[in-house]
Amino acid sequence: MVAEDKWIGSPKPDGIKGNHTKIPTGLKVRDLIDMEGGIWRHSYIKQIFEKIDADRILSMHISRRFPPDKYIWIHSKSGLFTVKSAYYWIKAREDQNHLPIASSSDQNTAWKQMWNLRVIPKVKHFLWRTCTESLPTKSGLLRRGLQIDPICELCGETIESTTHLFLECRSTLPVWYLSTLRLDLHGQQFGSFKNFLWTMLQCQPIEYIEMLGIIAWRIWLARNKWCMEKKRFDVMKIINEAQRMTLEMYHTRQPPRKDAKERKRPQWIPPPPGTLKVNTDVAVFHDGTVGYGFVIRDNAGAVSLAGARREQKQGSSTILEGIAMLFAIEKALEAGFTGFQVESDSKCLIEGLQGKRKPEATWNVILEDVTQYANMAQCTNFIYVNREANQLAHALAHFPKDVDVNLVWCNEVPSSIEGLRIDDRTQRERNRETVEKMKLLGWWLMLVGTLRLASVWFGFFDIWALRVAAHPLYGCCCSGIHINRSKVNMCRVISSIE
Ligand SMILES: [Zn+2]
The Reverse transcriptase zinc-binding domain covers which part of the protein (predicted)? Predict the structure, then answer.
């Protein structure tokens, strides 16, 4: 049921937030879907829902397989109810409602955990400043003796402290709630941001805390823009920015490097002769839209097919990577390609497709969709690659950044991308050229060195010749000619060096 059930959004679905009045009673979700095309009924949805809900609905992925609906328990990865997950969920709720009393050893662990977060140093530093109450909020500045109006500029209701700004202000609370964290802080009492963070560190996975840190940081930046430049405090923009940053972070995150062999830059490896390889990738842009890119290449690295598309979509990075893969396989099938290898830099998705990882309930549907398409295309070979070996697909995913496109290119990639020369194979050739150039430089240096050495010897000869000319003991009838000739030789050598 559209109005009653919690069915919008992923990974933690929620109900309708806006006005219900235009929604017909008894309306079901299937009434919002064009069953033939397997897409949302855009205009109908925009007609009966408020924008906030319409955007959330339209950004949800619909499986064209139309699998039967099922309930999932969102507090466990598998989507199945377990007593353990229920216990942790209840505990987390209780912890959110009561102030934790952290011992000093707990505090040390919490600080350690905070500094070990895999976010950019700026975010960690910001979290540290927030926890130690050293951010220049209004109350912070007042404490330092500045004569300012201490009222929160976002809500205009009370004094702006760190706690108010992040945990109580009615302007910032929707950011937490509408983000993928689904954090409802209304009526919660944490006392301070530090207590809040410590509580979350105890009951939430590390990825959750990283997202939390990034969101808090984006709230602070947006607050500064509003206070200093009067730039609108845009909740969805903050969420989109945080999501984009998280995705970028996840992309650049590398496993710790162990030895020189591993440190070698990974490169695109061509498929076996006579076969094709598909590389896919995804990008999230500033306005919250998502770009998908793919490229199909043969053994020689020549492009057979490439594509890029942009759309409004929300979901975890694994879901988005899955949609990029669906896009690629669908276009490859349309062009008549089958039996190709599929390569992506999403470890979760690839391991799920390889059967090495149990899919989480939130991305199981997309995994099944990809599997079905892959079966149709007779491809069973899924490979995980590092981002560096997936550069062309990465550039194609970023291609629709400024233009709303849904394009496919045959036997080429867009000229702007060709201009970047980031084809992984070209990169290899460039490396080879550099080695050749270095060799030539080596020979040139050796030649110059030899000539210089020769010139020094000629110098010695010159001195000897002078001595012969000046000293009768060395008596030589043609010493004068010797001198002249050696000088001529020296001049020749010098000019050749220059
Ligand atoms: Zn406020």
Answer: 81-176
